[in-house]
Design goal:
Number of helices: 11
Number of strands: 9
Strand content: 15-25%
Bound molecules: zinc ion
Structural class: alpha/beta
Helix content: 25-40%
Order of helices and strands: HHEHHEHHHEEHEHHEEEHE
Strand order of the largest sheet: 2-9-6-1-5-3-4
Radius of gyration: 17 Å
CATH architecture: 3-Layer(aba) Sandwich
CATH topology: Alkaline Phosphatase, subunit A
Largest sheet: 7 strands, mixed
Number of domains: 1
Length: about 270
């Protein structure tokens, strides 16, 4: 089990997404993640990305990624860099995704417990819209990602099932309509809570997350050839096992806070 918290905060991702796209970051965003920034520069030599696909699996802890690399093989093979991050407290979904897409700490974006109000401060989605670009979120109807960024000038594709979410994500990539496309999958989190982080039920969903990301990245390679694209496999927080063989998260501990995002840039080929 991990003993130390990762140094770099999740709040550095928002500015890094905007840096990759060549647009100004959200108003309250922390500084740009240095690893992602250097990687963008190294891969694109000053060019920027005209497409970003963020795939957001829920609750995939760094310790799970380290312990079960075979279950994340597809995602690892289709990405170039690992970005270890420290999520924010309390380490629950709306708080952490709030930080991922505002670049602000919870006290600033306003969600400080498990609740799903619409965030009112500036977000990556607003930054994208201001720059004259288009953003969309594809998520399920119960989840935080389907709620906390509503009421903005962007498109939302909210469905009841994971299958509909993923089918729509594939369709939207094929149509090449959005500059920033965010896809949320909460299946690992759901089964982790019920049957523990290392239960077969949860780990098989982790494999699904990896496979889904790989399938989306194949479609990106095929349909976004003319774009420099940033691809992210980007979870919100980790998890730990509790009594009764269930899983949980929300605490100030490395298991819940340490995560590792995976990124790749696909330079345009035409
Ligand atoms: Zn979560």
């Amino acid at each position: 089990m991990p003993e130390k918290l990762n140094e770099t905060s999740l709040d550095t991702v928002a500015a890094a997404i905007c840096y990759a796209m060549g647009i100004d970051p959200p108003e309250f965003a922390a500084g740009t993640n240095p690893v992602l920034r250097s990687y963008v520069d190294e891969k694109l030599h000053g060019e920027k990305c005209s497409r970003v696909l963020m795939y957001n699996p829920d609750a995939v802890a760094e310790w799970i990624c380290r312990k079960y690399p075979a279950l994340l093989r597809e995602a690892a093979e289709r990405t170039d860099i690992e970005v270890p991050l420290r999520s924010v407290m309390p380490s629950v979904t709306p708080v952490c995704f709030g930080t991922m897409y505002t670049g602000a700490q919870p006290a600033v974006h306003g969600i400080m417990k498990y609740e799903k109000p619409v965030i009112r401060i500036d977000t990556v989605f607003d930054a994208v819209t201001r720059a004259g670009k288009k953003a969309a979120i594809v998520a399920d109807s119960e989840c935080s990602m389907g709620r906390i960024f509503l009421e903005r000038e962007m498109d939302y594709y909210i469905y009841d099932t994971l299958e509909e979410v993923n089918a729509k994500a594939m369709e939207l990539i094929t149509e090449d309509r959005y500059d920033l496309l965010v896809v949320y999958n909460g299946n690992y989190d759901h089964w982790m809570h019920k049957y523990s982080p290392e239960g077969i039920e949860a780990l098989s969903e982790l494999r699904c997350n990896s496979e889904m990301f790989a399938a989306l990245s194949v479609l990106v390679e095929r349909h976004w050839k003319k774009h420099n694209t940033l691809l992210g496999f980007a979870m919100d927080h980790g998890c730990h096992e509790i009594d009764g063989k269930c899983g949980s998260h929300g605490l100030d501990m490395p298991e819940d806070l340490n995560i590792v995002h995976l990124y790749k840039i696909l330079p345009r080929t035409v």
